[in-house]
Amino acid sequence: MESRSYETTKKLSAFIVETDYERISQEVIERAKICFLDWIGSAYSGTSSFTDRLMHHWIKERGGMRISTLIGSKYLVPPEQAALYNGMISAVMEIDDVHEEASIHAGIGVIPAALAAAEYARSSGRELIASIVIGYDISVRVARAAGLPHHHFWHPTGTCNTFGAAAAAGRLLHLDEERLTMALGLSGTQAAGLWESINV
């Protein structure tokens, strides 16, 4: 018998696969574009910071495929390094967006992962925007489900955004429901070691 957590994860995976640009309302699309522009501003504000200099040095030492963009730079890096860098610099000034009810800063987790995956997969702008909508939705759902007790011990931006980032990237990489379920389960193991992820 499958656990309730596994069933819930499968429902989230189905939602990710079934949601495409055409099914998203124009109001939500416009809001996602605003969130994306807001995130770019947050990321640019973190350039030339100590974090920026430190990360640039660390990334250049590693080398690898030149695929994904570092915000504020012409330097291309492997997607996972771009997602890490862009997420870090967009949080430097702490002016990124916040979902008050869920107490989560979804943009700094979801958008860097989506942007890096979109460049890797050569996705369209519509696919990128749809993935951002999906990623935000999943991050907020997980954070709200975790509830206030979770927030007393963990920062939802760190623990719950792993799910939204996986959802956004997985959608852009065209993962099927089974692989998305696995990706969300793996996200749980990376989210500060949540025990519940064992049942996913």
Summarize this entry quickly:
The protein has 200 residues and is mainly α. Helices cover 66% and strands 2% of the residues.
DSSP strand count: 2
Widest sheet: strand ordering: 1-2
Order of helices and strands: HHHEEHHHHHH
C-alpha geometry: globular
**Span from first to last CA?**
13 Å
Q: Percent range for helical residues?
A: 55-70%
Beta-strand percentage? under 5%
**Main sheet properties:** 2 strands, antiparallel
Structural class of the helix and strand makeup? mainly alpha
Q: Count every helix, treating DSSP H or I runs of 4 or more residues as helices.
A: 9
Q: Over all CA atoms, what is the radius of gyration?
A: 16 Å
The residue ranges in which pLDDT falls below 50 over 5 or more consecutive positions are none
Give the rounded overall mean pLDDT.
91
What's the structural blueprint in terms of helices and strands?
Blueprint: H1 4-18, H2 26-45, H3 50-62, E1 68-69, E2 76-77, H4 79-89, H5 107-121, H6 125-153, H7 156-159, H8 161-172, H9 177-190
Antiparallel strand pairs: 1-2
Helix pairs in contact: 1-9, 2-4, 2-6, 3-4, 4-5, 5-6, 5-8, 6-8, 8-9
Structure in words:
- With 200 residues, the protein is an all-alpha fold.
- It has helices at 4-18, 26-45, 50-62, 79-89, 107-121, 125-153, 156-159, 161-172, 177-190; strands at 68-69, 76-77.
- It has nine helices and two strands; from the N terminus they run αααββαααααα.
- Strand 1 (68-69) and strand 2 form a beta hairpin.
- Helix 1 crosses helix 9 (177-190), helix 2 (26-45) packs across helix 4 (79-89) and helix 8 (161-172) packs antiparallel against helix 9 (177-190).
- The two termini are 13 Å apart.
- The model has no long low-confidence stretch (mean pLDDT 91).
